[in-house]
Amino acid sequence: MQGTDLGPQLPLALRYPPDQRFESFIGPPQGALAALGALATTPGADWVYLAGPSRTGKTHLALALCAATEQQHRRAAYLPMAAAAGRLRDALDALEGNDVVALDGIEVIAGTREDEVALFDFHNRARASGLNVLYTARGIPDDIGLELPDLRSRLQQCLRVMLDPLDEAGRRDVLRERAQRRGLVLEDAALEWLLTRTDRDLGTLVALLDRLDRASLAAQRRVTVPFLRSVL
Fold first, then answer.
1. 3-state DSSP: the chain helix, strand, coil percent, rounded to 5?
2. What is the mean pLDDT of each successive set of 10 residues along the chain, which is 232 residues long?
3. What is the reported pLDDT for 201?
4. N or C terminus: fewer CB in 10 A for the chain?
């Protein structure tokens, strides 16, 4: 996060891990990266509402947006809404002065009137000031439990991008790409073993890949099926 009292300001590399960039996102919907890229580079670009189930890459794209914005020497802030629930007005007030703000997981404030009103007020101020905003949520505005009709109406005016869970080929591509970035040698047989014998949730698979990377380095071994059996 940047510019809030919810945590210390961190170096770019720590705020926005290198795995979480536009170019490393597998299977984006048509036009999604162009719309997000416009937010990063162009004042007054169409705001984006990014919706999709858990583990579909919403946080990846939110952090990638912030990284891309700062690469343009513009100011960006990322706010996980779960960290600000119950005191959202103060957190949002602290974000003013940025060029781009990514608000990740707005469904967590649904049903809390004070937070909903704070988000509505922020939305209006941000529009007036020319701030670019990305919202992410697990569903469209009408489906996440928001009780303030005016807030739902404002959110519905954003450009909507829907993310779907990756199919098996997509999960395979993500694991292969992440392994290559780490310099991890992941044999095809080992990749298939992972996909058929472990939880196929993408977040779990990526966390498992991190574990295998550490184990492989410690043992100085390639990631083969026998190695997977011994580690898992």
1. 55, 10, 35
2. 42 60 89 97 97 92 95 94 96 94 98 98 96 98 97 98 86 81 81 77 74 82 83 79
3. 65
4. C
Q: Residue 48: what pLDDT?
A: 98
**Nearest in space to 191 (alpha carbons), one of 219, 226, 223, 232:** 223
Residues in the chain: 232
Amino acid present at 225: V
**The pLDDT value given to residue 13:** 39
Task: Output the CA torsion 16→204→82→1 (10° steps).
Answer: -10
User: Cα–Cα–Cα angle for 89, 92, 97, nearest 5°?
Assistant: 140
Count the Cβ atoms, other than its own, within 10 Å of residue 139: 14
What residue has token string 């705020």? 15
**Pair of tokens at residue 156:** 């519905």
Q: How confident is the model at residue 7, as a pLDDT?
A: 42
Q: How does strand 76-80 pair with strand 159-162? A: unpaired
Residues in CB range of 15: below 8 A, 6 or more apart: 1, 2, 63, 66, 67, 78
Q: What is the DSSP-derived secondary structure letter of residue 186?
A: B
Phi first, then psi: give them for residue 134, nearest 5 degrees. Answer: -115, 125
**How far, CA to CA in Å, does 196 sit from each of 103, 192, 199, 201, 225?**
35, 6, 8, 12, 12
* pTM for the full predicted model: 0.80
pLDDT at 1: 41
